[in-house]
Amino acid sequence: MSAILDEFDIKIIKELEKDGRVPYSGIASNLKISNTMVHQRINRLLEQGVITGIKPIINEKKIGYDWGSFTGISLNKDEDSSRIIEELKKIPEVTECYYITGSYTLYIKIIARNHEHMRKLLYEKIDVIPGIAKTDSMIELGCAFKRNVSL
What we know:
Keywords: DNA-binding, Transcription, Transcription regulation. By secondary structure, the protein is α+β, with helices and mostly antiparallel strands. It has five helices and four strands, in the order H-H-H-E-H-E-E-H-E.
């Protein structure tokens, strides 16, 4: 069941998108509603999973991770996906993992410091996970944009 958002929920989310560090009192003041209402709404949105957290967005390139790849993973048996995902979670440089349809079972995003780091991640950490049949990577050359769905 999807959560139903009213106009205040949407306005609060938009305020958080502008600056996730803004105090609840600042949101309340901007929207001319009570601080308590903002606090209750944000807690409800978190409990419902509409907002999955309020955390910094790290620019990997600024901290030395100059390489990124999108990697499709083919499995020997799709029923091994849960175990393989748990192994992928142990690799900090794997930042995203999706179930997909088509040629692959899983699709991951990997960040690396340089090409040698990327090679080691692929060949020495990912390809050796039992149950992975094949990986196919495309090197990311930069993000044109990334955004939330429009509310």
